[in-house]
Structures are given as C-alpha cells and as structure tokens.
Design brief:
The protein is of the alpha+beta class. Among the domains are: about 60 residues, no CATH class; about 60 residues; about 140 residues, Heat Shock Protein 90 (2-Layer Sandwich). The chain contains ten helices and twelve strands. Strands 2-1-5-4-3 form a five-stranded antiparallel beta sheet. The protein is elongated, with a radius of gyration of 35 Å. The relative contact order is 0.06.
C-alpha cells in the first residue's frame, strides 16, 4: 500500500508539474518535493521557465510604463485568425481621445470611426498622413498619423502613432530656438571673449608707471583688434535685424524670363571672373506675381552660393531649369560642385550658420523667409550624383 501511494503521488506530482508548464501556471511551489530525486531536472526546468516568465512580466510592465508616459497616442493591434484586436493602448491615447481601453476592433470603430476608416481603407498597411478627429463634440483637431506593421513569431502586429499637429509644431519651434540660441551664443562669445581679454591687457598696461614704445604698440594693436571684433559684432546684429524685420512683399506682375535675365545680368561679372558656364534650359515663359527686388535677392543669394561651391571645380557649370505643376512655378538652380556634406544638410537654413570665412550665414535663411512670405517655399535637393540643387517654388 505504501508503494502504491508513493507511486501515485509521484505520478500525480509529475502530471501536475507538466500541466503547470503547459498552462504557463507557475504559482506552485515544488521545493518541498526535493525528495523525488528522479524529478530534479523536471523541477529545474519548471524553475527556469518560472524565472523566464517573471522576467517577461517585468519587462512587459516596464515597456508599458514607458509607453504610458509618452505624450503620443499609441495603439497596437494584433491579428488573430482573420480579425484584428487591440493588443495595447497607452494612457495618452485613451485619455486624449476619451476612449476606454477596449480589446475589440469593432468597439474601437464605434469610438473613433474616422481613424479606423482610414486604416481599413489602406488594408492595415503602412500609412503616413494627417487626419481630423473630433472628440466629444469639441472642435476638430488635426493629427499626424504614422503606422507600421510587423510580424514576430507568426504574430501580426499593427502599430498606430497619433501626434497632434500643434505638438509637432511646438517641438519643431523649440528645436529651432535651441539651434538659433546655440549659433547666437557661439557668435557672441567669439567676439566678447577676445574683447574682454584685450581690455584686461590694456588695463594692466595702463597701471604701469611708464609706458614703453613696445607697450604703446601693444595698446594700438589691442584697440585695433577690439574695433574689428566690435565691427563684426555690429554686422552680426544688423544681419539679425534684417531677418527679424523683413518687409512684406510688394507684388507685381513680372515675366519669368525677365527675373532670370535680371539676376544673370547682376551676377555676370562674377561668372566671367570665375569662368563659370551658365546653362539655361528654361524653354517657356509665364507671368509671376512677386516682389521683383526680393525675388532677385533670392536668386542672387543662391547663385552666389553656387559660385562658392564651384571654387575647386575645374569645369564650372550652373544649370537653371523650370517647371510648372498645379499652378506652381518651380525654378531649379544646381551646380556641378562638390555638394553639401550630409552632416550639415539639416543646418543650411539655420540663421548665421555658414562654412565660409567671409560669409554672414543669413543668405539662405533670408531667402527661405522671402519665399515663405510669398506663400511658396525654398527647398534643398540632392540629385543622383550628390550634387547641390535648390528649388524655388512660387504659387500663382
């Protein structure tokens, strides 16, 4: 009888352990059954799986905590057979859109039909677009939606990110201000630091009882250096004033050919001096409604940059082309120089950023501001040969 009950308990313990592993139920404690030496490996397997599950649960809690602290609406869908269900919804999404943390797609459709409609129309494929969502009969808000889809261990997941346009704009504005302040502080320190050092040197010289000829020469050179740095600082402030006080464009009708011809006429002496070939491929003409002086300034700034970019090129060329798309006139200016280095591509429109020793760093910034004041834009493009190209867009 003892043997019978011993074997019965042993098999029961074995079955219970296997069943717990299969059901991912690791609440049992088998430490008191160490006397079953034949089950040592089984208990060891159970403990390993238990520790792994605890590890996964801990990671899941951490990941969910991170997602719940992000100020972006996040919802993750999981495909089960032929239906999508809500795998995870972060707190921001639930609170901002006033949606309970539902688990079924059909319930989410009832809450946010405009969002779900776009996703279904695209058949749950990757999307990047903007959409308007109205929450609780409040004002309609515009959001940027970006989605991605991935398969992990035969599980299909669809991730939706929703960001308020206002949040995106504020983030970009903050980044722009930070970059601007870095440039301004760097420029100011470059002038103030040597001026302070030279002032200290002058003060030390003035405290001497007698001033030698050598000291007098030092004083003269120090004062001259201070004047140069002061002039540079004054020019820097004047450049900033030009950017901040750009006048509104006084638009008038002018032909595209006239704008191009006037710009070339101004720049022709420099083209000849640098032996630059101008290739004008514009084969049509049209009327533009622009501020002629401001647009000529944009052209001059871009052509001047081309001249600088061609400095170390043997056969120098500047190519001008134009196109018309949907009531927009696009002028493309490119050169066959070395192009802009990838590391500084995102800085070229930053005020006072320049790679030229004699440059003020406001040409592209001013040109961009002029284009935006005209309702258009100025964009940087890189062609197939990594050459520099700028596109001027003017709206009719």
């Amino acid at each position: 009888m003892e043997m019978y009950f011993y074997l019965k308990n042993a098999f029961s313990l074995y079955d219970k352990t296997i069943a717990s592993i299969l059901r991912n139920d690791f609440t049992s404690d088998f430490s008191r059954h160490k006397s079953y030496k034949n089950y040592t490996d089984l208990f060891h397997l159970y403990e390993n799986l238990k520790n792994k599950q605890n590890d996964e649960v801990s990671k899941d809690i951490v990941y969910r905590s991170i997602l719940n602290t992000i100020g972006t609406g996040i919802i993750i869908l999981q495909k089960e057979e032929n239906e999508w269900n809500v795998f995870m919804m972060n707190d921001y999404f639930s609170k901002h859109f006033d949606v309970p943390k539902v688990t079924k797609w059909k319930y989410l459709k009832n809450q946010l039909p405009s969002l779900c409609k776009i996703i279904e129309e695209q058949d749950f494929q990757e999307i990047k677009t903007s959409l308007e969502i109205r929450v609780n009969e409040q004002d309609t808000q515009t959001f940027v939606m970006q989605t991605s889809r991935s398969a992990i261990y035969n599980q299909d997941y669809f991730i939706v990110l929703l960001d308020s346009i206002q949040n995106v704009i504020e983030k970009k504005e903050k980044e722009a201000w930070i970059n601007l302040m870095k440039v301004i502080s760097h420029e100011l320190l470059n002038s103030i630091t040597p001026i302070r050092s030279l002032s200290q040197n002058l003060q030390d010289l003035m405290q001497q009882e007698t001033i030698s000829t050598e000291d007098l020469d030092d004083m003269k050179s120090s004062i001259a250096a201070m004047l140069r740095r002061s002039d540079h600082l004054q020019q820097f402030v004047e450049s900033y004033r030009k950017l901040a006080m750009l006048p509104s464009p006084k638009k008038e009708k002018i032909q595209l050919s006239q704008l191009i011809e006037n710009s070339f006429q101004i720049m022709m002496p420099m083209f000849k001096k640098e032996q630059i070939e101008i290739i004008n491929t514009i084969s049509f003409d049209r009327w533009l409604h622009i501020d002629q002086q401001q647009m000529e300034q944009v052209m001059i700034n871009l052509l001047t940059n081309c001249i600088y970019a061609l400095k170390d090129t043997v056969k120098k060329q500047i190519i001008i082309s134009a196109d018309v798309k949907e009531k927009r006139t696009l002028i493309r200016i490119e050169d066959n120089g070395n192009g802009i280095e990838k590391e500084i591509e995102n800085k070229i429109f930053l005020p006072f950023f320049t790679t030229r020793k004699e440059g003020a760093g406001i040409g592209l910034t001013l040109s961009k501001s002029i284009m935006e004041a005209h309702g258009g834009y100025l964009a940087y493009r890189k062609n197939e040969d990594d050459k520099t190209a700028f596109v001027i867009c003017m709206v009719d």
